[in-house]
Structure formats: C-alpha cells, structure tokens
C-alpha cells in the first residue's frame, strides 16, 4: 500500500506564536553505467509541460505525439488531495485504489452495513452512492510562469524576503488568471519544479458529484495487511471504482483509458500517469548525510515508540481508529527503514557523490555565475549548522504525540509566561488558549511521556541538565509515572491560578513546569536558528534547481511535487530471495497464501471467496514493472502504448524505498493490480456484469459455477 508517509519534522511543536518549522546529451543519459551516478538517478517522473517525446522515441521506438500526451493527461485525475485516479469509460467511470477510497467508500455505508466486511457493488445506476465531500480534479490548463516568479524573487536580496516575494507573485498570478476566459471556474494551483528552477500555473476542472460504484472487501483490498506491504510477490485486489456525475447524470467524456485485459508481456514498455507525492533527489550529499546520521534514525525511533504504545493500548481497547493509526505508523516504519538502508548503502551514496561531481563540472563548463557555483558549499555549511542544532530542536520540541499532553501544555505555559514579559499584547490574545488539557487516555499519556524521556536520554545524553531533571535517578518509565502522578496541570483551579497570579508560572515547583523551563528556552533558541537556516536552504535549493535546469533542461525530470507526471518503464522480473520474481502473480497464489497461514488474519478471506471456480485460479492478479513511483501515485493507471489501461498501481517493493532520494531501476519495482485480474474478480466472485460490460465494451460471458 503505497501511501504518503508520516513526516515528523525536526521543528515540529505546539507553539502559541505559530513558529513552524542546456540539455544533456540523450545518448549519455541512456548509457550511464549502473555503478556510477548520473542524471537519470533523479528519476523518470516527466512533466506534461515538457513531454519526453524524443526520449520515448529513442528508448522504445515509440512516437507519442502531442495528442497522445493530451489524451493521457485528460484521462488522468487527482483523487481528492492525496491519491491519483483515471477515467476508464465514456460514462465517467473512475478507477483508483481501494486504500485510496477506503474512507470514502465506508463513509456511505448505511445503518446495519459493514462495507469493509462485505464490499460494495451497485447493480444499477440508481444504486450508486454519492460520497459527500469527495472530488476529483482533471488538469485542463498549463501555463509557464517561471520568468515572472524568478524576476520577482531576484528583486529581493534576503532569503526570507525572496520567499515572501514568491508567495506574493503566486497570489497575484492566481488573481489575474481567475478572470481569464479559459481559466474561469477552474481550481488554480502554482506548481514548483526543480526546487524553483521552473514554475507553472495549473488549472483543474473539479468534479464534486462522485459516487461509489464498486469496492471489494477490506480483506481483498488490503490482503496480507502490513506484513505484505512493500513486498512482492503480491496478492491484493487493491481497486475501487467510482463515477463522476454532471448535472445529475453520468459524465459523458471522450477522454478515458479503455481496459485491456489481455495481459502484459515481459519487456513491454508501460507508462504510469499520476501524482507522485514528494521526492528529494536533488538533495546534496551533505544533506543526505544529515538525514542518514540524524533525521531519519530519530524519526524511525519516534514512530516505533508511538506505534508500540498504541499496540499495547489496543490489546484491550480494540479500537478500529487506533488500529488504522497503527497501520499508518507501521507503513511509515517500513518506508523510513528502507530509506535509511539506502542512505547507509555505500554504493548508492557513491552514485550520489558521482552525480554531484558531474553536475558541478557541467555547471562550470556552462560558465554559470560564480555565486551560483558556491551553492554546494553554502548548502554544506548550513547543513553543518543544522547538525549542531538538531538535538535541542528535535528532542525538546513540544507536541502531544512526542511528549504527551501535559508536558506539552507545560511548554505552552512557559511560552505564555515569556510573552507576558516580552509581548503582553500577544499574551493577552493567547490567554484563552491557556486552559488545562483533558487527558483522554492516561495509559497512552504515560507511554508517550516515557517514550519522550527515553528518546531525550539517548539523544541528549544522561548528563544533560534536561535529562537529569526529568529522570532524577529513575528510569524513563518510572519518571513518566512520577511526573504524571505529581503534576497539578490537569487541575483547572491550579491552572487558573497560574494564569492570573503574576510570576506564578515562573515560580511554580510543579515538576512538569520545572522541566519545561529547562527545555523550552533551548528548543525555542534552536528552532528559531534552524528556521532561519532552513529558509536560506530553501533559497539555495532553488538556486541549485535553476542550475540543474540550465545544464540539463527537461531531459532530466524534476522532483515529485504531487503534480501530474508520466513515467515510463518496462515489465520485468528481478532476482530476490535466491530465486527470480515472476512478472505476474495469479489468484492461485492468493489461495496458497491463505491456506499457508491457515486462513488467519491478515491472510484470511471472506466466505464468498473460499470456494473459487478453477477458472479464477489461472487468472492474473498483480504484476511488476520498472516504473518510477512514490507516495501519491496510489491509484495511478498503468497504460500501454495504445493508451489502454492494463493495470492499476498500488505499491512498490522493498527495493524501491530508497527512491525517496535516488532512482536505480535494477531491482526497483512498481506493483500493479492486473486489469484482467480486476475483471476476473468481478466475473467469478462479485457477478458485476454491468461493470464488466462497461469496462470491456462487451457483454460479460456467463460466469463459471463454483464447485460444490
């Protein structure tokens, strides 16, 4: 299940003041050695602003003209603000993943229904259920605004000033285009490419009448659960279908991908169109080493501890929302674990260093301005400063999920006390927020606080004043229990006295406040410095992006920014676990996995799946390809050269996880539900004849009878 991953920021915290944290020769691109880094390590997420016509022709002997790209773009959709989708019929039928649609799908269930357990299929149009609040966006207008934005930024010298100038010109452009004839009524979004090397204005046609048509049971959509996540071979029917309505009737559209259920061939070129969420492949080696040594390990530890706390709590609570949160944490742990393994891989880091050297040499050869050529050194110097600030900014940052509600509130009170002296007007405005928190779950509160103290002890050291004051000879678990038992911050009367009696907050010996008075000033100082450095880093990354575009042009695609992209690959297996991964899995494998685990969760199957016809077992279920995807691509259609839908992307393998910072297609694989597999499930299990006919353009043949 390819999802956007949790990203606890280094500068996260609950603060009243709101403190936040020329074209390279194509032949050279294609012949870059596997052992040396090169431009294509930045990936193949091409934009529709500069479609890779020549690249497709040379690589696949395939001519994709402007009409091909236009039709592919108009048939593709953004599903809400977190996934991708596509039109797959002339009557507004929309295809996306089950894991993208799960919340929307279950949101329409009626009293007495459990659509996670039963799935859903509308046998008639009238049974299709409207999903309140759901929308899909179709990209219909693109305008290059690079020159205007860069000119506005260049007129300002300071880093923060440049960022403010950028936001102002974004706002001005949107206001201007709102009244233009071809842009009226569209959802407008400014898109940043190459970290600021290019900018575009996108206009989306938004459809808000979206209705659920088909959704399999959770056990099929998420078969194998978290253990099978990011693995292959895979057996998941991770698909759902919706329909867009226009003026109360199914939308009529000529822009859609016809279903091709005949399969995919080994070595066949294949294309994914979707909205990859975020990559950071333009990061310098210095920045990646910071992630490797500091940010990513700390993030993994934080998520692991919170997931453990929730799992322990849910043993008795058995709360579905908590279970979903655990799934999200575990998904993120696999993702970050794979990224960290990549960052610690000397071969991958050597590739990054190799490309950085090539890039510098190419920029010098192109006679770019001397101040631009200093960008790498400036980024490295800033990153070195961030290393020195990391511990205080990371381990002392207040947040309910990092240190619990009461210690976070103690930090809020400490800042409020500072505002009383330095900015009384701000303090007065914040007074209403200074209320005693209601701790809803004491077990989780203690677990989060104990996790925070454990992390602070490991990160800051046992001799650190904050750690010594917090533990006072106790273990983190013992200290958490003591602090929660002793504090009075959950007493509204005590908090009211702190708010109203001058000097009470600074003089209080409440152990939570004592701790916050030590930690919060350190956090605030580090966070403020880190924020200034990060703003400068953002400007420098934009400078780096401008150089990248000046050197390589559109022959190298930009990092992912949850904007519509098309990427190419081929259907291909890969060596794994001492053997070879097949390009296709079948429904027989689904049942093998089910039987091998004794029909136990998360490999159990609903009753109607337990007696399959033999014909189903032979049908393809999932397949793999070398396409370059990342979170946000979930729900993306997989199409062939004829613009036919042959699959539906839903995940990547473990080997794809370093794709956050580098794309190496040797073993990187995208995993898709096979178009033929979706139709086979509809035919043999769900008896969804109406949907089969719409997808394939032909009446569904009689379904084989299940064995008695």
Automatic annotation (TrEMBL):
Signal peptide: 1-27
Record carries keyword Cytoplasm: no
EC number per UniProt: 3.4.14.-
Keyword Hydrolase recorded: yes
The protein's enzyme class: hydrolase
Alphabetized UniProt keyword annotations: Aminopeptidase, Hydrolase, Protease, Serine protease, Signal
Protein name, per record: Dipeptidyl-peptidase
């Amino acid at each position: 299940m390819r999802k956007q991953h949790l990203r606890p920021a280094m500068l996260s915290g609950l603060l009243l003041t709101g403190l936040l944290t020329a074209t390279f020769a194509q032949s050279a691109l294609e012949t870059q050695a596997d052992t040396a880094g090169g431009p294509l390590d930045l990936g193949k997420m091409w934009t529709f602003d500069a479609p890779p016509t020549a690249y497709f022709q040379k690589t696949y002997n395939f001519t994709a003209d402007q009409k091909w790209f236009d039709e592919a773009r108009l048939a593709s959709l953004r599903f809400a603000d977190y996934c991708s989708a596509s039109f797959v019929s002339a009557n507004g039928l929309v295809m996306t993943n089950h894991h993208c649609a799960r919340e929307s799908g279950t949101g329409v269930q009626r009293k007495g229904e459990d659509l996670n357990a039963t799935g859903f299929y509308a046998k008639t149009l009238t049974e299709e259920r409207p999903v309140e609040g759901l929308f899909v966006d179709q990209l219909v207008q693109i305008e290059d605004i690079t020159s205007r934005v860069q000119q506005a930024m260049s007129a300002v010298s300071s880093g923060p000033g440049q960022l403010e100038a950028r936001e102002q010109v974004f706002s001005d452009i949107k206001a201007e285009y709102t009244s233009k004839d071809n842009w009226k009524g569209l959802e407008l979004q400014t898109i940043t490419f190459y970290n600021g090397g290019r900018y575009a204005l996108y206009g989306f046609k938004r459809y808000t009448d979206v209705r659920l048509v088909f959704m399999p049971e959770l056990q099929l959509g998420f078969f194998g659960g978290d253990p099978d996540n990011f693995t292959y071979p895979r057996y998941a029917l991770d698909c759902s279908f919706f329909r867009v309505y226009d003026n109360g009737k199914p939308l009529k559209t000529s822009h859609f991908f016809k279903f091709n259920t005949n399969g995919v061939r080994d070595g066949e070129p294949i294309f994914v169109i979707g909205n990859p969420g975020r990559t950071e492949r333009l990061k310098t080696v210095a920045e990646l080493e910071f992630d490797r040594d500091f940010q990513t390990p700390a993030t993994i530890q934080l998520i692991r501890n919170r997931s453990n706390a929730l799992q322990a709590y849910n043993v008795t609570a058995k709360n579905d929302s908590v279970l979903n949160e655990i799934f999200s944490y575990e998904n993120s742990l696999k993702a970050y674990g794979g990224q960290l393994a990549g960052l610690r891989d000397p071969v991958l880091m050597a590739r990054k260093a190799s490309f950085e050297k090539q890039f510098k040499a190419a920029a010098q050869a192109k006679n770019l301005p001397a101040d631009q050529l200093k960008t790498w050194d400036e980024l490295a110097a800033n990153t070195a400063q961030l290393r020195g600030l990391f511990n205080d900014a990371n381990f002392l940052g207040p947040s309910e999920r990092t240190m619990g509600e009461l210690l976070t509130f103690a930090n809020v009170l400490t800042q409020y006390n500072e505002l009383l002296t330095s900015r009384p007007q701000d303090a007065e405005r914040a007074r209403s927020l200074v209320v005693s928190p209601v701790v809803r779950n004491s077990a989780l509160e203690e677990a989060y606080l104990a996790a925070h103290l454990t992390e602070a002890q490991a990160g800051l050291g046992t001799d650190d004043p904050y750690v010594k004051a917090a533990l006072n000879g106790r273990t983190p678990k013992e200290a958490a229990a003591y602090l929660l038992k002793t504090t009075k911050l959950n007493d509204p009367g005590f908090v009211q006295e702190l708010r109203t009696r001058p000097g009470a907050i600074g003089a209080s010996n409440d152990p939570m406040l004592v701790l916050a008075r030590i930690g919060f000033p350190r956090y605030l100082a580090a966070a403020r410095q880190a924020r200034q450095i990060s703003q400068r880093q953002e400007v420098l990354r934009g400078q780096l992006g401008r150089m990248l575009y000046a050197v390589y042009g559109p022959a190298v695609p930009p990092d992912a920014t949850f904007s519509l992209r098309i990427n190419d690959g081929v259907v291909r297996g890969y060596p794994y676990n001492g053997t070879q991964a097949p390009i296709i899995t079948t429904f027989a494998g689904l049942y093998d996995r089910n039987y091998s685990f004794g029909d136990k969760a998360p490999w159990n199957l609903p009753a109607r799946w337990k007696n399959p016809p033999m014909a189903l077992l032979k049908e393809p279920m999932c397949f793999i390809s070398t396409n370059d995807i990342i979170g946000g691509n979930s729900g993306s259609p997989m199409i062939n050269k004829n613009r036919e839908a042959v699959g539906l992307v839903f995940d990547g393998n473990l080997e794809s996880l370093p794709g956050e910072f580098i794309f190496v297609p040797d073993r990187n694989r995208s995993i898709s539900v096979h178009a033929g597999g979706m139709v086979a499930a509809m035919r043999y299990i769900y008896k969804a004849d109406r949907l089969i006919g719409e997808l394939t353009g032909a009446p569904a043949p009689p379904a084989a009878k299940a064995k008695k």
